[in-house]
Amino acid sequence: MKELEERILKDGIVLDGGVLSVGGFLNQQIDTGLLSRMAEEVRRLFADAVVTKVLTVEASGIAIAIAVATAFGVPAVFAKKSMTSNIVGDVYSSSVHSFTHNRDYRMTVPKRFLSPLDHILIVDDFLANGAALQGLISIVKESGASLAGAAVEIEKGFQGGGDLIRASGVRVESLAILDSMEQGKLVFRS
Amino acid sequence: MKELEERILKDGIVLDGGVLSVGGFLNQQIDTGLLSRMAEEVRRLFADAVVTKVLTVEASGIAIAIAVATAFGVPAVFAKKSMTSNIVGDVYSSSVHSFTHNRDYRMTVPKRFLSPLDHILIVDDFLANGAALQGLISIVKESGASLAGAAVEIEKGFQGGGDLIRASGVRVESLAILDSMEQGKLVFRS
To answer: Which of A161, B117, B144, B178 has its CA 20 to 30 A from that of A84?
Structure first.
């Protein structure tokens, strides 16, 4: 998506350790106009798909999930993150390793929010190694729901997670794919 | 807001300890149609106010903040919660006591996201004792921005936080105000 790529080039900040900061327009402060246009683009990309619910993981995925679910006219569901492996109640859960924080966490979704009749579109802000996305895919499979695919705002293509998940047969659409961030220079996949 | 009150009566669950669970339509799963209509109602209530940014605190305030900011056509800003009192960087911060988790935390907003030229509408999902809202108000005051007021989805009127903040001169609009939850029976302020 051209507008998103241009905005990343204009306002994104490359920090030490290969971190791309987009906190000023996508993250801690959100340009809601851009957000709505990204949601419409996701709806266009998945126009041929049946989508009954949008699923993401808290907290940074909530904004784009709300916008995409609103564009489709369906509910949004959030997986919660928990540091404990003690999961109580009737939930689907998945263990995920966070490379950002170098620790494991569990994501959980109450069973009553996902049914085998659902067609789930997974949405997230970033896709890098794909650990969070794999966790959400595993929860969808466990629930017996159909997986329409996944849509993310920014994919770090050079980390390979997206292509690995595509190779497993899941449809993944990213609004901007970075193929390189070396020396602070951003190169998008065309 | 009639639709919200009826939905709370239909799908809200009163748990032990006076907790009202609305996870099925306002929280962990979100009815995006209802969310959009609540955002339009907030825009109507503050139609006479100047609003340049919507401010909330992560994570449960994000959904309604995104919807309200989209309705106003302005950016949304999220205060982050931190368990440490060691705040680094150029941020506004406020210490808040969480009665739900019985511990203190700090909320922080980068200074670059709030300016004295801004008119801030604070948005949150719940208002009970008002600690989180007081923290956000304190951050707005510290920044020198004008405070247009606060809008919340559900106020627990019997806990008094909302009326205390109103008495301090801040405009607080709640879409539903519960005056009692005794024995699981919900009574709304008319």
So the answer is: A161
Global pTM?
Answer: 0.95
**A7 closest CA partner among A190, A144, A186:** A186
Positions of chain B with pLDDT lower than 70, given as ranges:
83-88
Please state whether beta strands A187-188 and A172-180 pair in parallel, antiparallel, or not at all (unpaired): antiparallel
Question: In A, residues 118-147, which contact B (CB 8 Å cutoff)?
Answer: none
Give B167→chain A minimum CA distance, Å: 30
Q: Which residues sit opposite A54 in a β-bridge?
A: A76, A121
Contact B69 A23 (CB under 8 A): no
ipTM confidence score: 0.94
Q: Which residue of A has its CA nearest to B25?
A: A75
CA distance B129 to chain A (A): 24
Task: Establish whether the linkage from the previous residue to A59 is cis, with ω within 30° of 0.
Answer: yes
Q: What are phi and psi of B87, to 5 degrees?
A: -100, 120
Locus of tokens 């993310």: A152
Chain B hits for A78, Cβ within 8 Å: 28-30
Report chain B's C-alpha Rg in angstroms: 16
